[in-house]
């Protein structure tokens, strides 16, 4: 019998027998291809996540990709067999914020796949079909969606081989960054920068590179991921200790460290735009209101990803503008969840994918 990961309480998990949940009206049953791990998964396992954002026991897993195996009443049968990714926030669709498209600000309260609802660290996942985003169907020009074990970043996206379904699990963090890219609204020929060279930062580099900037700076702690940032579209990489002169039209902050917002604002020209995506812990260095006013800086923030941001990420992936496979350093079986979650955030570790 197949197994799922169940986190019973902080620091305690076990593999449990998995039985697919038949989809009810408006739902779809997805056969999971891969599931990514991030810092939020580590928080969930260690018990560091705020209580209102987790409900134990829970099957974790909010970054996933798969194939629709079955649909419930009211769902188009043509969805069966399609490769998909899916939103995590279980929005109500009827409150004022949902009606305006700001589904991550749903007034009905927080509910999310892998934190308060069963997640994708299991062979199958049943969820509302309205949350699914189908990946492009295979054509004679692009070939089939394929699974590739390559972790060197050279295969799996676009070209003649089609799309990498396993790496498509990273479209969840990519959708969050897509929200930041849409908020940044960078124009061709502008000078842009990204603060942070982790997963979100490197995805931000790719989104901004697609806008054809005149200069794209990536600022990170140390130079360990500098070569990768350059390969993904940055024109310059600098250490946070020496970010160089400012004068940038737009800066996306994707580090989440206590001083990141302050450092990102310092890179802007007068009248520039700052987009914040990170959620720092206690003791963060705030932005100076006087500096914001005198330099007329515009500050935008991102929390999660709306359907529009998801659609933007899927389009970019389908067009070959995103190469999430380049960020993957480990692809492990689901049974190795315990060791995998300990690896999250460790030196030299990029994205981790678990497969059922």
Topology overview:
Elements: E1 3-9, E2 12-17, E3 27-37, H1 39-46, E4 63-71, E5 83-86, H2 96-99, E6 124-128, E7 132-134, H3 171-184, E8 191-195, H4 199-209, E9 215-220, H5 226-231, E10 236-239, E11 248-253, H6 260-266, E12 268-276, H7 289-294, E13 298-301, H8 307-318, E14 328-333, H9 337-343, E15 351-355
Parallel strand pairs: 8-9, 8-11, 9-10, 11-12, 12-13, 14-15
Antiparallel strand pairs: 1-2, 3-4, 3-6, 3-15, 4-5, 5-7
Helix pairs in contact: 3-4, 3-8
Task: Give an account of the 3D structure.
Helix 3 crosses helix 8 (307-318). It is globular, with a radius of gyration of 20 Å. Strand 1 and strand 2 (12-17) form a beta hairpin. It is built from nine helices and 15 strands. The termini are close together. Strands 3, 4, 5, 6, 7, 14 and 15 form a seven-stranded mixed sheet that branches. A six-stranded parallel sheet has the order 10-9-8-11-12-13, with helices on both faces. It has a two-stranded antiparallel sheet with strand order 1-2. 21% of the residues lie in helices and 25% in strands. The protein has 356 residues and is an alpha/beta fold.
């Amino acid at each position: 019998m197949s197994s799922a990961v169940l986190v019973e309480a902080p620091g305690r998990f076990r593999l449990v027998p998995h039985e697919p949940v038949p989809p009810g009206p408006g739902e779809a049953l997805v056969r999971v291809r891969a599931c990514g791990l991030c810092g939020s998964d580590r928080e969930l396992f260690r018990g560091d996540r705020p209580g209102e954002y987790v409900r134990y026991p829970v099957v974790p897993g909010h970054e996933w990709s798969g194939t629709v195996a079955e649909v419930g009443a009211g769902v188009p049968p043509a969805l069966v067999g399609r490769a998909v990714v899916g939103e995590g926030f279980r929005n109500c669709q009827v409150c004022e914020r949902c009606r305006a498209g700001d589904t991550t600000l749903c007034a009905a309260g927080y509910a999310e796949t892998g934190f308060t609802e069963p997640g994708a660290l299991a062979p199958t996942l049943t969820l509302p079909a309205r949350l699914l985003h189908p990946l492009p169907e295979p054509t004679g020009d692009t070939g089939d969606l394929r699974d590739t074990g390559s972790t060197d970043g050279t295969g799996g996206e676009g070209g003649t081989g089609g799309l990498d379904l396993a790496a498509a699990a990273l479209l969840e963090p990519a959708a969050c960054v897509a929200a930041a890219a849409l908020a940044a609204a960078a124009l061709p020929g502008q000078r842009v920068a990204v603060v942070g060279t982790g997963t979100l930062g490197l995805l931000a580099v790719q989104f901004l590179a697609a806008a054809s900037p005149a200069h794209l700076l990536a600022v990170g702690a140390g130079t360990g991921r500098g070569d990768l940032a350059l390969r993904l579209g940055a024109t310059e990489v600098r250490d946070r200790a020496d970010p160089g002169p400012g004068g940038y039209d737009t800066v996306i902050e994707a580090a989440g460290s206590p001083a990141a917002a302050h450092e990102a604002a310092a890179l802007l020209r007068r009248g520039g735009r700052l987009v914040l995506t990170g959620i720092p812990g206690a003791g963060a260095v705030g932005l100076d209101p006087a500096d914001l006013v005198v330099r007329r800086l515009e500050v935008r923030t991102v929390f999660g990803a709306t359907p529009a941001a998801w659609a933007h990420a899927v389009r970019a992936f389908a067009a070959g503008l995103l190469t999430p496979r380049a960020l993957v350093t480990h692809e492990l079986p689901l049974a190795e969840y315990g060791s995998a979650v300990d690896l999250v955030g460790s030196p030299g570790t990029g994205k981790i994918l678990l497969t059922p």
